[in-house]
Design brief:
The chain is mainly alpha-helical.
Length: 897
């Protein structure tokens, strides 16, 4: 990084000298404003080249006269503004008239009579005829400009009508002042164009400076830049005053881009404006653009700028902010050797820099030696020392300077108070913190702001539990009567699990606003929920004084009770809401139906959805639609699924990938295969990604519909995206088996193994079922052998297939063996096993054994179903037991089967 080079050398550290070290980013401190020479009016040393009529030049002259003692009276300027209210040619006998002399360009003087006038300007009455000279008209216009904008513009129009504006730059300048004050920028631009056109005037920098000055005074950054660009476009070269005003304007608003443009233009014209260099460095320093700030410092040397006090201070601040304290020392020494006496602002900057660098020994050394160089510490000095010790976490030293600051009659700033309260939160007791709160109150700080600072400090220190001991007296009274402060404190307590303290504040509050109170309780309960403190939320809810049903609070509590597994309490809240006059909204219904789903009560969940449908004004969102699809699927309500699907299509809801996946998965049995295929293709064309379940569902749909070409395409697509699993192969193998395509079934099994999947039990069961039904018993036995070799345990489905196949063949002995193996495996027969056995016994002519099985089923807690009785009746009929068959048929009717 660049550094400023000085001819003065700096010795090594000496305890008798000021010594400095490192730190970044601190703005020029407030004492800087007290340095007299540093203001816009000091730019008189930079050759503004503005005529007497220009307000900037007048400001400079006034300020300079004040410094030199040349201004006779502080009321002089005000007297000029109040001087004359009108202009008129009068008789010498008029006692109200006053004679003035106006210097004309040829050196002669012309007598001009003016008088006080509070009404409208009458040109004829006051002798303003076309024979008036241009010089006299300008004098009149100048007096009017100081008293009345409207009269000035009327007289200016009169001058235009009477040909007094030809080549009259001064008149235009005065009119531009008025337009600038009014902010009529369009009119000003039109007037400048008129100058070079109709009036044959050459608009120079003085004309543009007049408008730019108005922008500067009013803080219009963009307009200032516009006028500069217009000035350049019209070939007018700015002067020192132009760039001085613009750079100050940009500094006020920290406008980096505009300042860089103006600064580069200044250097390209070879103009040296000291304040422009200061403004550019200050902007870069404020924005922490230290490299660029040092580039400007290099430009100062390159452009051979003679530094004034402001420049030196800006350089000192730039180095102090970025922690280059050695360079800052060098600037200070060079400043003193350049004839500038020691300045408290400079030392305050260095103290601030050392404080930021946590080098408080150096800062302390500067402070102790201030009097040795003829300076007294000021308010900013003590403030900087407090901040420095605060950064060093030294509460004892910070407290000493804080008390010294107050003892000298100075006031701490908001940063000092913030520093002290944070130190006290860590290292002091509650009494010290209470005193700082009193200081904040004396300074006029708002209670809510003070409370926020206090809570932030004690939260960071991990001592929020000490806050109730500090908040006493008027502060606590304010909390109890102010809704905002009460909310801030309660939320802070809840966040730190101080639920009892939060409840105490809520119970002791003095304000009464039921709506606000309900909203606060809802916010507190939601905060507990988000933080995972569910029991605290329940505790706060139970302490609520107003238990009038509130939709938002009760729905949140239903969700909390559901998460805690306390479904009966959640249901009670729902029933209370339902019985009240409050209408549930879409979110409330969503919460309630999810509560029932979590509790496993799908029937009640469906009932909630029916209640919701009765309210015609409820429009489900995409999340509720998905919940409804899942509930209807789990309940097997295919008609509801179908109706809901077409309702979703009409709703206009925007579909996402999750919606496509949910609809396909849930509606696979409710929708025609063509509609599912269309939906799947639409999903792919929209760029959404099906998940593995969706791919498997489509494989099942296409397989059962024997659309194997589409099924193979889906399998290929799933494999390409890496979403194939064992279920994918199981599904398509089962489809081939059901269609009796043994060749493709075996081919898919080999493909499954080739792609790294082991043959699953489901695949073995599919092979057994297919071979058995096709009568390929040798292949059937080979599959059983391979199952045993691979140690693949059989399930109910395996045993039931074996019983069915052997029973179909009439191999009752093999059926008995399978039944024995089933019982020994620990599984025992299930409903399907008994139904299959009854069928097998009927084929084998063992009717009595089939009847015994029905009794055994009941003894084992398995209720016979329609298939059970159908198989038994068929067995009886095949064996000519018609009477028994009729008895069992009548029994079926009595059972409602």
């Amino acid at each position: 990084m660049a550094s400023f080079k000085f001819s003065v050398s700096v010795d090594t550290y000496d305890s008798n000298k000021f010594h400095f070290s490192a730190n970044p980013s601190f703005p020029i401190i407030n004492s800087f404003a007290r340095v007299k020479p540093i203001n816009l009016s000091r730019l008189d040393a930079e050759s503004w080249d503005i005529p007497d009529s220009n307000p900037v030049a007048e400001n400079i002259k006034t300020s300079w006269s004040k410094d030199s003692g040349g201004l006779e009276s502080s009321n002089y300027r005000n007297d000029i503004w109040r001087r004359f209210q009108g202009v008129k040619r009068v008789n010498r006998k008029d006692p109200n008239s006053k004679l003035r002399s106006a210097r004309i360009d040829n050196g002669h003087e012309e007598k001009i009579y003016v008088k006080h006038f509070d009404g409208e300007l009458d040109m004829n009455e006051y002798g303003m005829v076309s024979e008036l000279s241009v010089e006299r008209c300008n004098a009149i216009l100048k007096d009017l400009e100081r008293s009345s904008d409207s009269k000035t513009m009327r007289f200016f129009e009169w001058m235009r009508e009477n040909g007094k504006l030809k080549g009259n730059v001064g008149a235009y300048n005065l009119a531009l002042r008025v337009l600038g004050r009014r902010g009529d920028w369009d009119a000003a631009e039109t007037m400048i164009q008129e100058m070079s056109g109709d009036s044959d005037c050459q608009a120079d920098f003085r004309v543009y400076n007049t408008v730019i000055y108005a922008c500067y005074k009013q803080g219009h950054v963009e307009l200032g830049t516009k006028w500069l660009r217009l000035m350049l476009e019209n070939g007018v070269q700015p002067n020192v005053a132009t760039f001085g005003m613009l750079m100050r304007l940009y500094q006020k608003g920290w406008n980096v881009a505009e300042a860089e443009f103006a600064f580069s233009q200044m250097r390209s014209f070879g103009i040296t404006c000291q304040s422009a260099y200061s403004a550019m460095i200050t902007i870069y320093t404020r924005m922490s653009l230290y490299d660029k700030a040092e580039e400007v410092i290099d430009f100062i040397q390159e452009d051979k700028v003679t530094l004034n006090l402001e420049n030196w201070l800006v350089l000192l601040n730039a180095y102090s902010q970025q922690g280059k304290l050695q360079e800052a020392e060098r600037v200070l020494l060079s400043m003193q050797n350049s004839g500038f006496s020691p300045n408290i602002v400079a030392y305050n900057m260095l103290i601030t820099g050392y404080g930021k660098a946590s080098n408080m020994d150096a800062a302390q050394s500067i402070f102790r030696n201030l009097r040795s160089v003829g300076l007294e510490p000021d308010e900013s000095t003590y403030r900087s020392m407090i901040e420095g010790w605060g950064r060093a976490e030294n509460y004892k030293e910070a407290e000493w300077y804080y008390h010294e600051l107050k003892g000298l009659g100075f006031k701490p700033n908001s940063s000092n108070l913030y520093t002290m309260i944070h130190l006290q939160a860590k290292y002091a007791d509650e009494e010290d913190a209470a005193r700082t709160l009193d200081d904040m109150k004396k300074m006029g700080c708002q209670y809510s702001s003070v409370l926020g600072t206090l809570l932030q400090a004690y939260e960071r220190a991990g001592r929020i539990d000490r806050v109730p001991l500090i908040l006493k007296g008027s502060f606590y009274d304010h909390v109890l009567v102010n809704q905002t402060s009460c909310s801030i404190l309660v939320m802070a307590y809840v966040k730190q699990c101080l639920v009892d303290d939060a409840i105490k504040v809520l119970q002791e509050k003095h304000w009464k606003d039921i709506i606000f109170e309900d909203n606060l309780y809802h916010l507190v309960i939601c905060s507990c929920k988000e933080l995972g403190h569910l029991e605290n939320a329940v505790k706060i809810y139970n302490q609520m004084p107003n238990k009038k049903p509130n939709l938002h609070i009760m729905c949140t509590m239903i969700d909390i009770y559901s998460t805690l597994g306390r479904f009966s309490e959640a249901e009670n809240l729902y029933l209370e809401l339902k019985s009240s006059e409050i209408s549930l909204d879409m979110i409330a219904f969503s919460i309630v139906e999810r509560m029932y789903v979590k509790s496993g009560s799908l029937k009640d969940a469906c009932s909630v959805l029916e209640t919701m449908d009765e309210q015609k004004n409820i429009v489900p969102d995409i999340y509720l639609f998905r919940d409804m699809l899942r509930i209807y699927q789990q309940c097997g309500m295919l008609d509801k699924l179908r109706d809901l699907y077409y309702r979703i299509l009409k709703s206009g809801v925007t579909w996402d990938d999750e919606m496509y996946n949910c609809v396909i998965n849930c509606c696979s049995r409710a929708l025609p295969v063509d509609e599912l295929s269309r939906l799947f293709d639409e999903m792919l064309s929209q760029g959404f990604s099906p998940n593995t379940i969706t791919f498997n569902v489509m494989l099942d749909v296409y397989g059962k519909s024997r659309l194997f070409t589409k099924a193979r395409k889906v399998l290929w697509l799933a494999r390409k995206r890496g979403l194939v699993d064992a279920i994918s192969y199981n599904t398509i193998i089962a489809a081939y088996g059901q269609s009796k395509d043994m060749k493709k079934m075996l081919s898919t099994v080999r493909e499954m193994q080739f792609n790294g999947f082991s043959v699953s039990l489901e695949v073995y069961n599919c092979l057994l079922d297919s071979y058995g039904k096709e009568g390929q018993l040798e292949s059937f036995r080979n599959v059983l052998r391979r199952m045993k070799e691979s140690s693949c345990a059989s399930d109910h489905y395996t045993y039931n297939i074996m019983i069915n196949i052997y029973g179909e063949q009439g191999w009752i002995e093999e059926v008995a063996n399978v039944l024995t193996e089933l019982k020994e495996s620990g599984l025992g027969p299930d409903l399907c096993s008994y139904n299959t056995l009854i069928k097998a016994y009927g084929i084998a002519g063992m009717v009595e054994d089939a009847v015994v099985l029905v009794k055994e089923m009941r003894e084992n807690g398995i209720q016979p179903d329609r298939i059970t009785y159908t198989n038994l009746i068929n067995a009886l009929r095949k064996n000519d037991e018609f009477l028994e068959a009729v008895k069992w048929s009548l029994w079926m009717k009595q059972m409602g089967l």
